[in-house]
Amino acid sequence: MGAEGEGGGGSSGLTRRRGCTCTKEDFLPEESFRSWSNYANALKETPARLVDRVLTRSSEQGELEVKARSEHDMKKTLNWWDLMWFGMGAVIGAGIFVLTGLEARDEAGPAVVLSYVVSGTSALLSVFCYTEFAIEIPVAGGSFAYLRVELGDFVAFIAAGNILLEYVIGGAAVARSWTSYFATLCNHKPDDFRIQAHNLPDGYNQLDPISIGIIIFVCILAVSSTKGSSRLNYIASVVHIIVIAFIIICGLINANVKNYTPFAPFGVRGIFKASAVLFFAYVGFDAVSTMAEETKNPGRDIPIGLVGSMVITTLIYCLLAVTLCLMTPYKSIDPDAPFSRAFETIGWHWAEYVVAAGALKGMTSVLLVGAVGQARYLTHIARTHMIPPWFAKVDPKTGTPINATVAMLAATAIIAFFTKLAILSDLLSISTLFIFMLVAVALLVRRYYVDGETSTANRNKLVVFIFLILASSGATSVYWAVNEDGWIGYCITVPIWLLSTAGLAFFVPQARKPKLWGVPLVPWLPSSSIAINVFLLGSIDKDSYIRFLIWTAILLVYYFIFGLHASYDTAKAFEVKAKEETVYIMAEAGKDSSADKSATEAAADGIKSVID
After folding, report:
1. Where is the signal peptide (predicted)?
2. Is 529 within 8 Å of 133 (Cβ atoms)?
3. Angle at which helices 338-345 and 226-253 pack, to 10 degrees?
């Protein structure tokens, strides 16, 4: 499990200058990049540095310390009501308004409602894990910070790359869907607003300029003010909920129960395959956890905001899925704008425009909350110097990370301009399920392992049980993917998962209790989250895995060339600085009176806890 280590800090290289200038110090301020000879020496030390980064874990105090590298604090302006609406605004968008029709028509039929139940259950289990972390470690880094504390720098970096990919692809998919509903509102087909580039490969040859326009609009809002974004999101979400209520009520008035037969034309496999893709519809709630740094009372506000928004969202999704399949036969569902076209088929032509307008508002909210969340992820990653610290800067006037926001949305715009929705949704689901699985593993490590307190025997038992949980979950997923009719394999893998989780519950004592709010039913709930996330990974197509592996390979190349050395130098510089401060404080303690000495020594102990 490695020793708990640094806060990842050090001299940030973020010095205040007038004007909008950029220098090498903004991007590569670390010692390894001072000269070519330094860089050559750093490359020679790559194996040793990699071992250090793999085995070294950050600390909670260290993650809080790195906030100083943004030059200015983010403003604490959010409460549980804001987080609730941010949660629904982040999630209810392209997933329900576009992918519902696509998956109902091609994969699940009317049983798509069960697909939403499965993916919603997986998302809710992940929400519980995120909530405990967000309360205990209230920083903008979200799952990156949580994984860095519990699983170490290297795992956190791989997760960070996929987190950023998740946000970029998710935003691009929503922006493409925005064009589809905008076309409906204008009484056109989506392709009428796209440019056909015949020389580009299929799936990347429908250029979408409207998606770039909406992303630029969202970027302007996101960099202006977090509280302002919250208010706009609140208004847009209220309108969105009214439109959703309209769809459900008016849709059920025109329901035809015959359309629900057959209920599951593609069988159980189709339901789970659709669940893996529809997990995209729940992506975004983790953006709320990145706002912990801006929350007034994290211990109260985050559980209400995260769990409450997810429960409401799942209920809404199920009602919308039922309504769509009762309104129109699943084979006739339009893949681009299913709800609008459903009202058109029953003769309510005016209603399709109401639905399209509501969908546009919903997807705008998703883009806005996604922009806010992804910028905060990038900001915290940059604070550790895994990527250039220039991205960590927070504007003193707006209190928002402008550099990170613009960079992430620029990448989102490029992907949205070229890439088809079906390609984006599958790749997004892989990244998201992978990250959520890691967060659940990190929660188990957090509860059962504390460096210096957990015995070697208990640590070894923890490693074995977590390995068996992961292995049995993976084996179940692989068996599901390669064997359509078999059942014998499940008789082996499922009992192993049950016994491993039970072994963790009964034979390894918990080493840490949550301070304010904790996940219930540990280890069963996080272990179930691991199992269902890994199982859904078995329902995703091969091409998406190839793209995922290519992206991971790119991340590793960057890490070994730049990220490893930058974060290593930063961590070591922080350790040196912290030790110097400890020595200074202890020296001052010798001069102080006995009344002041205990307070001074307590401060020194706080610094030592970050580096020991």
Report:
1. none
2. no
3. 30
CA atoms of 429 and 166, how far apart (whole Å): 8
Residue 196 has what DSSP assignment? E
pLDDT digits (tens, 9 = 90+) for 1-39: 444 444 444 434 444 444 445 676 777 788 888 889 999
* 151 CB-near residues (< 8 Å, 6+ apart): 57, 438, 441, 442, 445
Position 461 scores a pLDDT of 94
Task: Give 295's strand partners.
Answer: 78
Q: What pLDDT sits at residue 603?
A: 47
What DSSP character marks residue 206?
E
Q: Are 321 and 104 in contact (CB under 8 A)?
A: yes
Helix (H) or strand (E) run with residue 230 in it = helix 226-253
Tokens of 105: 């028509």
Which two three-digit tokens encode residue 321?
Answer: 């899925």
Helix (H, G, I), strand (E, B) or coil at 23: coil
Q: How high is the pLDDT of residue 604?
A: 47
The C-alpha atoms of residue 148 and residue 442 are separated, in whole angstroms, by 9
Residues in contact with 40: Cβ distance below 8 Å, sequence separation at least 6, in sequence order: none
Averaged pLDDT in 10-residue chunks for the chain of 612 residues: 44 42 73 90 91 78 57 66 77 71 89 92 88 77 79 86 82 85 83 86 86 90 69 72 88 90 90 84 71 75 85 90 92 83 86 84 79 80 84 79 88 88 71 87 92 90 95 92 82 94 94 86 94 86 82 90 88 73 65 51 48 46
Query: What are the Cα distances from residue 426, in Å, to 95, 103, 277?
Result: 12, 12, 6
User: How many residues does this entry show for the chain?
Assistant: 612
**DSSP code string of 420-469:** -HHHHHHHHHHHHHHHHHHHHHHHHHHHH--TTTS-HHHHHHHHHHHHHH
DSSP code, position 107: I
**What radius of gyration do the chain's Cα atoms show?**
25
What is d(CA 184, CA 132) in angstroms, rounded to the nearest whole number? 42
First to last CA, the chain: 15
Tell me the DSSP string of 457-522.
HHHHHHHHHHHHHHHHHHHHHHHHHH-SS--HHHHHHHHHHHHHHHHHHHHS------SS---SST
Amino acid identity at 473: S
Ordered DSSP codes for 261-307: -SS-TTHHHHHHHHHHHHGGGGTTTHHHHGGGGGBS-HHHHHHHHHH
So what's the pLDDT on residue 500? 96
Which 3 state secondary structure label does DSSP give 99? Answer: helix
Q: Kindly state the tokens that stand for 541.
A: 């197509």
Q: CA-CA distance, 514 to 290, in Å (whole number)?
A: 19
Tokens representing 49?
């540095």
C-alpha span between 92 and 314 (Å, rounded): 10
Task: Give me the residue label for tokens 């460096």.
Answer: 451
CB 184 within 8 A of CB 165: no
φ, ψ of residue 498 to 5 degrees: the values are -60, -45
CA distance 154 to 158: 7
